[in-house]
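Hey,
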Amino acid sequence: MRLREKLRVLREVEGTCRGLPRALSKAEVVKLIREEAEERISLPYLSQLEGGTRTHMTNKTRLLLARFFRVHPGYLVDDPEEFREHLATPLGGRTQTLAAWLRVGALRFRHDPLVSETLARLAGHPERRKALRLLHEVLGMPVLMDRLLHALEVKRR
């Protein structure tokens, strides 16, 4: 995972941990760092890091971001190509809601549009437990699943 991807995931998780149904914006991160850590990071600098146009940061910035997001400073670097570890657990010992877990999963599987979009849609659904119950029942009836998929394919034509 690249540094820019890690920063995006950390903003998503931080937003969830703060009770928001979305990621913190970069502007919110800058504001909260100023308020909570009483230090500064500029919005353009953070945008360059997250956009990938700036690939290295100062040690002071790395320590500041690590403290704000409650991660080890060593996490805030690009992983080697063969390394495949993903951030998928809540930070700071806070409990994670099902919706937050689904949103992190959607980010984790962003390379697979079907999985990513389904998890994101389920995370935003007002009756996600009802949707999960329906999925649970359909998975228990393979014939029904095949018939439903067939009906959807016919409808698309």
